[in-house]
UniProtKB/TrEMBL annotation:
InterPro entries for the chain: Bulb-type_lectin_dom, Bulb-type_lectin_dom_sf
UniProt protein name: Bulb-type lectin domain-containing protein
Signal peptide: none
Organism whose genome encodes this protein: Spongiactinospora rosea
Entry superkingdom: Bacteria
SUPFAM superfamilies recorded: alpha-D-mannose-specific plant lectins (SSF51110)
Length: 162
């Protein structure tokens, strides 16, 4: 846990491997709650990151299972893998974008290690994808402007929900 409030996992060579994206909250602290949820709280007591909210970004081989979601850094937007199999980008209760894969209970989304973000049926049949294969190290991020973007490992945009 860094002084700026960012939780960072480093390799043995001191290379950052993962970050909570909370580096703008000096004095924040990490807590493991009784329900097993891992939460970062600002000094004010406001939760600024939680494990249940999935990840700050979705990296290779990470999944969104039914009920999982990914939040934007400022928590205004959520990408939700719904129980009905639809992947939906939301603001409040309003849908901004959808994979239109509803009716596939048990479906899940995965950021593949080849750079393609795909929604699969519970039988692992592809239902929808970003068609961004060939970009190992790519990641998905929900941005504070309400846009969902797949970026190359170098930070260049490959696909956008807009």
């Amino acid at each position: 846990m860094q002084k700026d409030g960012n939780l960072v996992v480093y390799s043995t060579g001191k290379r950052p491997l993962w970050s909570s994206g909370t580096g703008d909250t000096p004095g924040a602290f990490l807590a493991v709650q009784g329900d097993g949820n891992l939460v970062i709280y600002a000094k004010s007591g406001e939760a600024v990151w939680e494990r249940k909210a999935s990840f700050a970004r979705l990296t290779a081989d990470r999944e969104l299972r039914p009920g999982d979601y990914l939040r934007s850094a400022q928590r205004r937007y959520r990408l939700v893998m719904q129980e009905d199999g639809n992947l939906v980008l939301q603001s409040g209760g309003a849908a901004l974008w959808s994979s239109k894969t509803g009716g596939n209970a048990g479906a899940f989304a995965v950021m593949q290690n080849d750079g393609n973000f795909v929604v699969y049926s519970s039988g692992e049949k592809p239902l929808w994808g970003t068609r961004t294969a060939g970009n190992p190290g790519a990641f998905l991020q929900v941005q504070d402007d309400g846009n969902m973007v797949v970026y190359t490992a170098g930070g260049d945009p490959l696909w956008s929900s807009r």
